[in-house]
Specification:
Blueprint lengths: L5 H13 L3 E3 L2 H10 L3 E2 L5 E3 L2 H15 L12 H4 L17 E6 L1 H4 L10 E4 H10 L4 E5 L2 H5 L5 E2 L1 H6 L3 E5 L7 H10 L6 E5 L4 H9 L3 E7 H5 L1 H6 L6 H4 L3 H15 L11 H6 L19 H10 L6 H6 L3 E6 L1
Parallel strand pairs: 6-8, 6-9, 7-11, 9-10
Antiparallel strand pairs: 1-3, 2-3, 4-5, 4-8, 10-11
Pfam families: DUF7281 (PF23947)
Protein name: DUF7281 domain-containing protein
Length: about 325
């Protein structure tokens, strides 16, 4: 195994490429000097002087030690690719999970492709991008929680979402054993002009933050009742956890700052009452029925204000347990 780190290699590369006549005799260079005795220190042990021959020797010793040429370093490879050059595959910047993502395809898309329709695929990012083009995918849904990802096709969607889901690829956001890096890489390669990206998260400050920070995402999946009859939604038994809401103040601050920057730098929705909230919360005489011909009159700012004022934290799992109908809300 190599005796010098990635940091040491970068340090050596800078000295060799720039043909530095001297370098600070810091901990990194002291380590290299103890290993190879290349260069000459000054009397105060503050500087290490390097000759042209020393630069060549550093390059040779680094290649013997690590298998890498310090004049042509490239760490932006996978560990498998790095293993072809060096005994230390962990020099690679691309971790094993960073080039993969976990996804599901809508049942109609699985016909002729998969024997089992309700299964997840772990694919390389480039293969997933090719699959999007091959199947003419027009929607990518990013799901926050793994168990909700597993059960995504058991949720109830409204008519327009049901139609959208027919050509949808569902992607797990990533955490723990499934790195978010693969999902981030994947979304960065998607053409937003051809594929719509939507977020399906918990309805709470953390979920709103996740949705807002996803690349190319402009829609959030929410319970239809949150848009048409929020008082009725919160009246459902065991649906909301204010305790969990209070654990998400950092995420709430992020959302508030985002809205303030977009609308009015002096306006801060936060936990304070807002005229947006008053418009969103229906009175007791307000009908719970959505007039489909008029559409939904709720926007992103109103939803955020309602979540903040009424301390809303409704988990994806409860949306399924309560058989809530889900709709799309544009940011």
């Amino acid at each position: 195994m190599a005796s010098i780190s990635k940091h040491h290699l970068q340090m050596l590369a800078r000295a060799a490429k720039q043909r530095l006549p001297r370098v600070p005799f810091n901990a990194g260079w002291q380590h290299v000097y103890r290993l190879w005795q290349i260069g000459e220190t000054d009397g105060a042990q503050k500087q290490l002087y390097l000759s042209v021959n020393d630069h060549q020797l550093l390059r040779q010793m680094a290649q013997i030690d690590t298998g890498l040429d310090i004049l042509a370093l490239d760490f932006d490879v996978t560990r498998q690719q790095m293993s072809q050059q060096s005994a230390n595959e962990k020099y690679a910047n691309i971790a094993p999970e960073a080039d993969y993502l976990l996804l599901k395809l809508a049942p109609p898309l699985c016909q002729g492709l998969l024997a089992e329709h309700d299964c997840a695929l772990r694919l390389k990012v480039d293969r997933a991008v090719n699959l999007c083009e091959q199947l003419a995918i027009n929607c990518i849904m990013v799901v926050e929680n793994l168990d909700s990802f597993d059960n995504v096709f058991q949720y109830q969607f409204d008519q327009s979402m049901t139609k959208l889901m027919e050509r949808c690829m569902v992607v797990y956001r990533g955490s723990h054993h499934y790195s978010p890096a693969g999902r981030k890489h994947f979304l960065g390669l998607i053409d937003p002009a051809k594929v719509q990206v939507i977020a399906f998260t918990d309805l709470d400050p953390a979920g709103l933050m996740i949705a807002h920070s996803l690349d190319h995402c402009q829609h959030l999946v929410v319970p239809q009742l949150a848009l048409s009859a929020p008082a009725t939604l919160l009246a459902l038994p065991q649906i909301n956890s204010a305790t969990d809401f209070y654990k998400q103040q950092r995420q709430l601050a992020y959302i508030n700052e985002t809205i303030a920057a977009k609308n009015n730098p002096g306006e801060y929705l936060g936990l304070q009452p807002s005229p947006l909230v008053n418009r969103l919360m229906p009175s007791s005489s307000t009908s719970d029925v959505i007039d489909g011909s008029k559409g939904l009159a709720v926007d992103w700012d109103q939803l955020v204000a309602w979540v903040a004022r009424y301390h809303v934290s409704i988990k994806q799992q409860h949306m399924l347990a309560k058989k809530l109908i889900l709709s799309l809300l544009r940011f």
